[in-house]
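Notebook entry, structure prediction.
Reason for the run: the old model in the group folder had no record of what sequence produced it. Starting over properly, with the input documented here first.
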Amino acid sequence: MPGLVARRLDPQVLGKVVRGSATPVIVVTGSNGKTTTGRMLTALLRAEGLGARSNGSGANLVQGVTTLAVDEADRRGRLSADVLVVEVDEGALRQVVPELAPQAVLALDLFRDQLDRYGELHAVSDALEAIARGLPPDAAWISNADDPLVAFLAPERNERRVTFGLDLDRSTDRLSSAADSIRCPRCGAGLVYDRVFLSHQGAYTCPACGLSRPRLDVAVTALELTGIAETRLTVRLPAGELILRVPQAGVHIAYDVAAALAVMVGLGISPEHAQAALADVKPAFGRLEVAEAGDRRIVLGFVKNPTSYNTTLQTLAGTDEPRQLLIAASNTPVDGEDFAWLWDVDFGPAAGRLERVTVSGTRAAELANRLKYAGVGFDSMTVVPDRRRAFEAALAGTPPGGQLTILAGYTPMLELRGLMHERGWVGRLREA
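New structure, fully documented this time:
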């Protein structure tokens, strides 16, 4: 709301505050991982003595970014922060980035996401390409080398270009119908993967033109997942190796860690205190957030596209979950109205473990139909569109000592988390 009001009063307020303060800005963008990576990067910068501030609550449209600047400015419109870490929605890039004039831009990944908002992937990659080409020579461009659509953007940018990815001796995923960018960005031929790490991200080569994954400046060379509680990994940097423990789990967390460290490399800041900094970065709200709910436990997962769904389900499978499930999808303008991508979510492996499923949201019927085709029986499924009633029903049906897993899109996730906050089980959104 502060950003909305401020822009009504002065549409140029964001650029005036940021540029007038000469505060360095780091932009974090991509389909998945923005909030978690931004939190990790902020922790790394603070550990090195920099007063970093960020929009860590995930408000990443133009109003949210403006709110960050307005909140941090004094009465003269000057920022006191040493650096701003700004998460920016892919759809807001063309408007927000020119106003911020960032010193570094991090491109995480590109996955199909809300086609009615973003269009096809190449429309988003074109926006990223324009941003990369428009950066001044002294700005850093940090990109995911494992994502073919991201790796080769703005190839003419050779100065201050940093790449990151996974360099493991095994695959951690497989190519499925949810894998998006599996064709060569140069010639269009099908890519051949030596290893697949997450959806279409991996070590790849084009058999037609010879294009292959770029060299990795920052690489995860060892990875061990411990349930949903911890990720242990080794990361190779230009200056040496780091052995890290992060209190979050999933292959996607390894990518987020590598991305945050790659930004530090791009800025020329040595992450001397990375081990302690990252060991204290707990999940952001809704990112497999765990809450004790009396004699039950709730795990809240924010899922918004096929890759986020599949990655979350894969991570939960490591603990033989979910069994008791509340799943919700809504078609607000923020969530997107096109839910065709639900058919690319691999619910099949989880279907056999599910004991009880409560389906909710404004698209509850469509979601229930998708689950039915995935093998979830009607006798174990209850459709309750209203979120409060669905939450109460799902919680009541979870046995004492059991775990309720909630998988929800953006709007229902906020609604359901609000109900958890009412009961004192989680903190306020901005505190998470």
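Summary: The chain has two domains: 2-278, 287-431.
The old model has been moved to the deprecated folder.
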